[in-house]
Amino acid sequence: xARRSAVEEEPDIGSAALDEAWDEPARPAKKPxxxxxxxxxxxxxxxxxxxxxxxxxxxxxxxxxxxFTADTPAAxxxxxxxxxxxxxxxxxxxxxxxxxxxxxxxxxxxxGRQEQLARFLPxxxxxxxxxxxxxxxxADHLQVFEVHVRDKENAVVDVVAxxxxxxVRLAVPVHARGGGFVIAEQPxxxxxxxxxxxxxxxxxxxxxELETRLQTELTGFFxxxxxxxxxxxxxxTEGSDIEGLDSAVVFDAIVEVDAPKGDADERTVTATVxxxxxxxxxxxxxxxxxxxxxxxxxKRDQWNVRSIRGAVRTGS
Length: 316
Fold this sequence. Notes:
Blueprint: H1 14-22, H2 39-69, H3 88-102, E1 105-106, H4 110-118, E2 136-137, E3 139-151, E4 154-163, E5 166-177, E6 180-183, E7 188-190, H5 208-227, H6 230-236, E8 250-258, E9 266-277, E10 287-299, E11 303-310
Helix pairs in contact: 5-6
C-alpha cells in the first residue's frame, strides 16, 4: 500500500487563475463623443474649403471692376500726381496780345510796331516777324477761337479777328517755359470759322386755341417784363425770380406764339416779341427789334410764366 506523503500537494490553479486574481476591477464604458473618430477634422476642412472658395469668387468679381474704374496710372516717378500740362488760359491771353500787335501795322509807324513785337519774340528773330515794312493793316474784335495743345510746353492758339470787313483766323504757336511765354514760330492765316446750316423747323402739332389765348395773356407779362414792373410781374408769373429788363426796351407787340399740344396744365412755348429800342444818343428815332423767347407757362386762372429764356430750335 502506498504511503501517502505528509506534504499535501496544493492544487494547480494555473497562471490564468493568478492573472484573474490580480486584474484591476473593470471600468465603466465611456459615452461615445459625437466628434470622435476624427470627424471634427472633417468639419474644419470643410470650413476652410468654403472660405477659400469665397475668397476666389470675391476676387474674381472685384478684379475686373477695379480695372474698369481705376484712375489713369500716374507716370513713373510722379509720386501719384499728374504732371501739369500747358497753361491754356495764360497762353491764350499771350497769343491774343501778340496778334493785336501783329495784325496792326502801318509803314509810317513801323518802328513802334517793332518795339512792341520784341516782347513776344525769341532772341534773334526778325524784328518785324515777316512783314516787309510796306502797306497798312488794322484789326479788332480779337478773341480766342480754339487751342491745340501739343505737349506741356507747346500749343497753337487760333485767334479770330475782324480785318476791315472780313474775319480772319490766325494760328499762333506759343511756347511756355518757366512761367513765361514766347512766340515759337511765325503765325499762319487759316480759313475763318464756317457758318453752319440752320436746324430744320421742329415738327409738332400746334395747339391753335392756346396760341390764340396766349397772344392776349402774354401781352401783360411782356409789358411788365420790359419795365421791371414788380406788381404786374407777380401777377403774371408763377413763383419765379423774373426781374425784367429795367426799361432797356419798350414792348411793342407779340408777333407770334407757337404752342405744341401737350399737358393740360403746363407747356413750353415760344413767343416772338417786337421791342422798341431807345437810341443810346439823343439824336435819331427808336428802332424796332424782333426777338424770340422760350417760356414755360402753367395754367391757373390764367396762363402764368414760370421761366423765360432764349429760344433754341431743336429740330433735326
